[in-house]
Design brief:
The chain is an alpha+beta fold and 462 residues long. It has two domains: 291 residues, 3-Layer(bba) Sandwich (FAD/NAD(P)-binding domain), CATH 3.50.50; 144 residues, no CATH class. The chain contains twelve helices and 20 strands. α2 crosses α3 and α11 packs across α12. The chain binds flavin-adenine dinucleotide.
Length: 462
């Protein structure tokens, strides 16, 4: 391999803060707000031009339900954001479906009103560390490369970029195959006559005899539909005909799903196309391929809707995600690393920051989980995630939040949803603030105390 050596450069330290949040996605926004609420100075470093990450730039809506009666949420920042989204008409009353565009604004407001400094268009390319202590991160920007120093760091990059650059241990992909879950390129279609499409769903249900399986219309604005590889789906027949006619590829049918978006009467958000090969979210070749091939597939799918569905006659693509949807990539080894087996057993922890019963959700050509574990029957049908999963092993001031926390492949397939990710942000932000104020190691932070602070600020636990 041909190489060049770049001469060593001295880099200016341009900013410093008590707590530096690396990545401004779902976890990053919650962690930043939580650390600021504890009285710390906070900087958020983000490569794109808005907060929200996968939920906004990846167009991933809605919030998945935790599967626990009452959906407790376990996050006070989730409540703060939901209030803002509702006030802006960007969230339904149930607190689940939201408009990704409005979330971009709500996330920024949440941070700015707490005095957080946001640095957009900063890509973190390196980490400066000494003896298990992260001193600073190197950012590459249009204005040059420089260092941002901090006392505590929280890796909220989704891919554990900071921990990995710092030399932390991590895992990636399915331990049996080494492969990560499929990635997706999401998009929004507008110009839809939802009433006509809703009536089409009902007529397809009558015609095919597949009664509202993965498809529903409430007679007003709310439409839902899905088709996957297996089983009978209300809209499955249209897909089969299109595949047979060469209007769709079989992969278009293997995972297809749409959701309504609050406040957008003529629009629907699509959770596809999904890619089953070249799925490493840390490989830029794979990400580039997903964008190139994804847009081709999106236009093929639009042509399909126009030809086979009613209500799409004037439809057009109004948004394609600038960020590829990565379900899973690297996970750090934490002070505690939680397994999917513990999850299936519904294990409880006194220092948990999240309670959820969201299932194991492994995408792929076969959607499955081979483990067959009987859950404990303690009258509490959920599992909990302990604080130790947020503390990066062998580091004294490095926390992690979001989908890349210390869990194994199986557990990640459940904890990746936004509700757990948001509560991990609350907990990591509070934990980092306590470590900063007391001058102690991340290893000395007591998750029980963190949880009680979360509750005092409005987080609901069962
Ligand atoms: C296709 C798809 C569908 C999904 N469906 C649902 C759903 O319906 N409901 C649900 O609740 N969950 C769903 N999920 C899961 C959920 O949306 C994500 O797991 C979650 O949003 C991840 O949040 P995060 O904060 O960990 O990461 P992200 O939101 O991805 O945030 C990471 C942030 O860090 C930034 N960043 C990364 N690296 C760097 C760097 N080196 N320098 C600077 N900035 C950097 C990124 O730009 C980004 O803003 C879905 C996920 C996918 C991919």
């Amino acid at each position: 391999m041909k190489t060049y050596t770049i001469p060593q450069k001295e880099l200016e330290v341009r900013y410093s803060a008590d707590v530096v949040i690396c990545g401004g996605g779902t976890a990053g926004v919650s962690a930043a707000r939580a650390a600021a609420d504890q009285g710390c100075s906070v900087i958020v470093i983000e490569q794109f031009g808005s907060t929200g990450g996968t939920a906004t730039n990846g167009l991933v809506t809605p919030y998945m339900h935790s599967g626990i009666a009452g959906d407790p949420g376990c996050s006070y920042t989730r409540k703060l954001i939901a209030d803002k989204l509702r006030a802006m008409g960007g969230m339904e009353e149930d607190g689940r479906a939201f408009d990704p565009m409005v979330l971009r604004i709500a996330g920024e407001q949440l941070l700015l009103e707490a005095g957080v400094k946001i640095l957009y268009y900063h890509f973190i390319s390196d980490v400066i560390k000494e003896d298990g202590i992260v001193k600073g991160v190197v950012c590459v920007t249009k204005s040059g490369s420089y260092v941002i120093e901090g006392r505590e760091f929280i890796d909220c990059t989704g891919d554990a970029d900071i921990a990995v650059l710092a030399g932390a241990e991590y895992t990636k992909g399915n331990p049996d195959t080494g492969k990560c879950q499929p990635i997706s390129l999401r998009y929004i279609v507008s110009g839809i006559n939802k009433q006509a499409f809703g009536e089409f769903i009902h007529s397809e249900s009558e015609r095919t005899g597949v009664k509202n399986w993965g498809a529903s219309y409430d007679g007003k604005d709310h439409v839902y539909a899905a088709v996957t590889g297996k089983g009978d789906w209300t809209l499955g027949d249209a897909f089969d005909k299109a595949v047979e006619a060469g209007d769709l590829d079989i992969e278009d049918k293997l995972y297809w799903q749409l959701f309504s978006i609050p406040g957008r009467k003529d629009s629907l958000a699509f959770n596809n196309p999904e890619f089953f090969e070249d799925v490493d979210g840390t490989d830029v070749e794979h990400l580039t391929k997903a964008q190139l091939e994804g847009k081709r597939r999106i236009y093929r799918q639009l042509a399909f809707y126009k030809k086979y569905f009613k209500g799409f006659e004037n439809a057009y693509i109004s948004e394609i995600a600038p960020m590829v949807g990565v379900r899973e990539s690297r996970n750090v080894i934490g002070k505690y690393t939680m397994t999917g087996i513990e999850m299936l057993q519904r294990k409880k922890f006194a220092d948990s920051f999240s309670q959820t019963n969201y299932p194991i959700d492994i995408h792929g050509k076969e959607l499955n989980c081979k483990e067959n574990v009987a859950p404990v029957d303690d009258g509490k049908p959920w599992y909990e995630i302990p604080f130790g999963t947020l503390v990066v092993k062998d580091f004294k001031n490095l926390f992690v939040a979001g989908r890349c926390i210390g869990v194994d492949f199986l557990a990640e397939s459940s904890i990746r949803v936004q509700s757990s990710v948001r509560s991990s942000g609350d907990a990591a932000g509070i934990g980092a603030a306590l470590a900063c104020k007391r001058g102690v190691s991340s290893y000395d932070i007591d998750g029980v105390e963190v949880r009680s602070i979360m509750i005092s600020l409005g987080a609901d636990f069962k």
